[in-house]
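User: quick one, fold this
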Amino acid sequence: MRRNKVVGLGAVVLTLGLSLTACGTTEDGDGGSDAACDLKLAFFGPETGPAAGLGKPIIQGMQLAVDEYNDDADCDVEMVKYDSQGSPDEAPSLATEVAGDESIVGVVGPAFSGEGAAAGPIFAEAGVPTVTPSGTNPGLSTNGWDTFHRALGNDATQGPAAAKYIKDTLKAASVFVIDDASEYGAGLAGIVEKDLSGAVKGTDTIQTGQTDFSTTVTKVNDAKPDAVFFGGYYAEATILIGQLRDGGYEGKFVVADGVKDPAFLDAKDAAEGTIITCPCIPDTDPAVATFAKDYEAEFGEAPGTYAAEAYDAANIFLDGIESGIDNREDLLAFVNDYDEKGITKQLKFDKTGEPADVHVYAYTVKGGAIVPEGEIK
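Assistant:
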């Protein structure tokens, strides 16, 4: 496998012995084929819209992998972007566009669970292999889509980890659970609520795009919980925590990966002490040190949430293309059988597309920054 522009001697010798042909692959003197040509990989997720902050690191992580591949390839792979704005309503038409372009042999995404549920049947019908670096709703792998793969743990692992942290680390005896009614947020909050069981003293549902949370603040204050868990995205969490603090709530605020974005820090002092869970490896981990350095050199900033997972997801497809695969059917079989070490984990999928290697980490907002605490075990 290629990692951060490191190519083995055997691969270099092979590359030097290849000559470009006009039929879509490169061939050596014995007639064997190597990397396929004229192929595309698609990003599917938010490039614009209220959740664009979570899409940006995924786009850039994927872009880095493609750029590194193209640096050493005889035939470039083109990266194309399908901007869903994170909306399930936008996803079907975009997925139909992807399905109609046979040169697109793989999709990094869909980025969010809601759009993944909406686009999944279309990708499955067209045989388009997908690897999401960020969609965590457990139900995505239960629909019978043989094209679906997930490069991170789902909320059936993140939810219990968040509940465990609340119970064992925060020692919270009472909890109030809030969700944003999205496929992701409601699903995750439901798991946390179930796992905390009798400790849950109240629940509430808000809506994405909502800005007035006074009713929720009143409910929280009436319940007097030690901790509040919110299942949703950073746009609402940023406003919600500000209004909770202004309303007098002094307990812990616990959120998940949908809030792990620098924009959440716009809540300033109100965000301090927030606990964020995420099945995403910290960029301080030794396994991603070289990736983080290359990413910052390329984009002028540290890798954000799911940048490393997107890099891994893209490299799965690129490894298949490098081996000579030039169509969706064969690439799907390649992904199904994949078992290689990535920078975030051992990349291997079960029959439903779930990863074999799963880890959930805790982060804390300290001093105006999102700081990794370590793995929740």
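User: anything notable?
Assistant: The mean pLDDT is 91.
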